[in-house]
Write a structure and sequence with these properties.
Largest sheet: 7 strands, mixed
Number of helices: 4
CATH topology of the domain at 3-119: Aminopeptidase
Oligomer: single chain
Distance between the termini: 42 Å
Strand content: 35-45%
């Protein structure tokens, strides 16, 4: 397995959008059910690079197979908080790639001064929840009917990871 974890760059945009679209169309893991239009997605990726945000891609044999980011939340009072997003195309799951992506993104988030990372995970996504728990994320609440896909509601857990030793 020829795997590399890299910071996002312009050369990854096409593959990243394709990976996002693949995962989104599964309608089980993301808030998206398809990728945004190319121009919109690429503008978003460019803003991530321009602002030095934490965003990593997984390349398997040179192809983008997943991503993990920790993006800032809005508001000065929440400037210490980032939101984690992750996705892997089906062929890249259960190979340890998600853990490698998360390790890189979380380390970068702590380096940038964040002290809290949040995420939402659907209740029916036990594999992802278990991965987050291995990294120390804890369930902080249940959000009822948080997702609606094709008329069906799904609950999700709100989870967070606090940086150890961060001063108040």
């Amino acid at each position: 397995m020829n795997l590399s974890i890299e910071r996002i760059s312009e050369v990854h945009f096409e593959g990243l959008r394709a990976a996002l679209d693949t995962v989104a169309r599964e309608k089980r893991y993301l808030a998206f059910t398809q990728a945004p239009p190319k121009e919109e997605a690429f503008a978003f990726y460019r803003s991530i690079i321009a602002n030095g945000m934490c965003h990593f891609v997984a390349l398997l044999d040179g192809q983008v197979v997943g991503w993990c980011d920790v993006l800032p939340t809005h508001g000065q009072a929440r400037s210490h908080v980032g939101t984690l997003g992750i996705g892997l195309i089906p062929a890249a799951r259960h190979l340890g790639i998600g853990a490698k992506l998360m390790r890189a993104a979380i380390a970068a988030a702590w380096t940038q001064g964040l002290t809290r990372i949040e995420l939402d995970v659907r209740v029916d996504n036990a594999n992802a929840k278990a991965l987050y728990e291995r990294f120390g994320f804890e369930v902080e609440g249940l959000m009822r009917r948080a997702f609606r896909v094709d008329g069906e509601y799904s609950d999700s857990y709100s989870m967070a990871l606090l940086r150890e030793g961060a001063s108040p």
